[in-house]
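Changelog-adjacent note: as of this version, every example in the card shows the full chain rather than a window. The one below runs 101 residues end to end.
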Amino acid sequence: MFVQALHTKDEELMKFSLKDKLHQPYRMKLVPGMNSIVENLKHTQGVIGTVLSGAGPSIVVFSNSSALDNIKDIVTNTWFDINVSTKIYTLPLEENGAVCI
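Full-length structure tokens:
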């Protein structure tokens, strides 16, 4: 479903496909501040979804570019307040997929 949402650029389908109700609610408790970040980003214009990456503590925020500054502020300030250091990478989606070089 997520791949289809990316392929068709369907933001509503992407939002729906990023709502993990099996694993993420339990794993979020292991990442300090994660619940606060997810809740704050949920109400941020331009944010499509926020998920744990792998086993954590990395997170991925899918958004359109208009939300980048707000996302950085929310994540940085939330973790700063609880003494968690952050590194934020802004990456575009790769539209060609994996390629052999």
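Structural remarks: Residues 22 and 84 are 26 Å apart (CA to CA).
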